[in-house]
Amino acid sequence: MKKLFFLILLLAGCAVCLQAQNPKQPSWLSDAVFYQIYPSSYQDSDGNGIGDIPGIISRLDYIQSIGVTAIWLNPVYVSGWTDGGYDVIDFYRVDKRFGTNSDLVELIRQAHARGIKVVMDLVAGHSSDQSEWFLQSKEAPDLRYSDYYIWPSFKPEGGQNPAQGGSLDDAVRNNASASLLSKFVATDAPRGPYYIKNFFDTQPALNFGFANPDPGHPWEQTVDAPGPMAMRRELKNIISFWMDKGVDGFRVDMASSLVKNDPDKSATIKLWKDDLMKWFGSEYPEGVLIAEWFNPAQSVAQAGFDLDFFCHDGQYNYSSLFFYGRRGFGPNATVTMPYFDEAGAGGLKTWYDLYTYQYDAVKGNGYVCMPTGNHDFNRVCTEGRTNPEELKVAMTFFLTMPGVPFIYYGDEIGLKQNPAAPSTDGSGFRAGCRIPMLWDASANAGFSTAPIEKIYIPQDPDPNRMTVEKAEADQNSLLHYVRGLLQLRKEFPALGADASWKLVSSLDQPYPMVYERTRGGERCWVVLNPSAKAVTVTLPAETAKPELIGGNYKKCNYRQTRKGDVISISGVSAAIYKF
What we know:
Blueprint: H1 2-18, E1 34-37, H2 53-58, H3 60-66, E2 70-73, E3 77-79, E4 88-94, H4 101-113, E5 117-123, H5 132-137, H6 168-181, E6 184-186, E7 194-196, H7 226-243, E8 249-253, H8 266-283, E9 288-291, H9 296-299, E10 307-309, H10 319-322, H11 349-362, E11 367-369, H12 388-400, E12 406-408, H13 468-473, H14 478-491, E13 500-503, E14 513-519, E15 522-529, E16 535-539, E17 547-552, E18 556-561, E19 564-569, E20 573-578
Parallel strand pairs: 1-2, 1-12, 2-5, 5-8, 8-9, 9-10, 10-11
Antiparallel strand pairs: 3-4, 6-7, 13-14, 14-15, 15-20, 16-19, 17-20, 18-19
Helix pairs in contact: 12-14
């Protein structure tokens, strides 16, 4: 009996070792690999030039072959298409360009049959100005949806100029007030002369209340007023509607934008943590909520999201690693030399300071995730970085860092940014990263049978462009390399989401970057040299001699000397060691 008791304790201990960082998170999340799909650009099944849900279903075997365990779909709801689907008209219905609700349920069924989760985009902070809710709200103050939106009766003047006096708190509040004033949209609606938008004018903000309502502004309702509380119930209804159809969770667009005049986000954090998160966790314990907040210390550690992104926006971003200019868009962008470039002229300190702050803040609560790209900023294969060998070094970084990996569709084959792509569905300069997928040598690279002029966004015009078909046939392709990295991540817990991370090399010598991942008794070092020149680094002496288990390099040498351990690695190379 005693032996059985100790065996149970031992098994329980092992279970604890294998669970995700936060026991409240979905059990599948720590081993997940996400694949983001922009539905209009992935696969067209009906020949109209626009991707759709049946097209995605037809490619599920390929998606599974990469090593992906979850897909995230950009919005598929009925939309006015002034912002790529993020201006939602009907949150409960799939847009006819993509198919039907039944098509989405079939996608979920077939994905689940392959062990793939499906996550939708939840546009929580605004709707389309063509939504039934908004059309009713603009008419009168006492209808069902009247208080789903914010209707200022006049436009206040700006607050005190921080430069002319006042405390730092005053400056923060004034800046927040000025930011809100920029979102006043003039209208001739019977309801009032203005409404408040969230992003474009076509995206009126949903009303979750104000953090500190001004008594002189009658439209500024408290967060617990009837209108904002009704809006919370509607948001829960939307979530329940899709979760009950089999969806596995949501990526929440502009998750920090809900409560207005909330400069430190404390009221928005409280709304998520004390209401929405508690409800969601109780109703859907295996569901995931992913924040687009760009501040994991707030969204994950405080508000309770499962993960948040460290990528292109806000203060906490990786622009110094990958972007030529802020986002790498346009001929007039300020040129900066990123770390991941053959010139070898970048640095790590800016990124390191921002990242380690977030990483330390989130440990034990959830994940800080660095996606390979997304629908709002430049692809990793862009401008000066189109060599497949360079892309392998970059993908080694993305897929061996802590957190849950997110691969933007096409990045696994080196789908290239098209800076000449015309604005489509309100994409503006973002069109270049939303170009259609390249599958094979057939017309339109297998994306669509439509005439080329009907294709959603022009594809990469390079006649030598990489396709899935080419990549499959080449054992040295980026696609096969990505598959190998994901397999390594699966085989070695030290490369997984929950393993600890620390920089081993010095910020004063940025090339190569060497970092350590540790889980249990297993340790791995990842060595990255994006520069074209071979480099050598001396590190503190290790007692164990490591085994080279992966990477992409011409030469890589690890020597243990009296002065320390010396690693020499060729240009544009990556190596992974296990101790």
